Description:
alpha+beta; Alpha-Beta Plaits; 29% helix
Amino acid sequence: xxxxxxxxxxxxxSPVEVEHVATRSKQVxxxxxxxxxxxxxxxxxxxxxxxxxxxxxxxATDHDTVREHARRVGMxxxxxxxxxxxxxxxxxxVAETAAS
Length: 100
């Protein structure tokens, strides 16, 4: 499998909408593409116009599988790039929870 970065611009109006699409995305990947695509992580981005976009990391057999998965979920895939190399300087930060 190859690793891809997918940019989704101005895709959602609220965090609740992102959660619904995330659930659908995992369902479609698991049911329709069980051996062809894996969602690794996403970074939700506050767009300049007030909407939310994302940068998503997926592993997939090819570019067309990434695009077809997005189509079936009903979300954009504005830019799909093949990752040439991964360089990790620090692990992703873990959100701190409020003290109880």
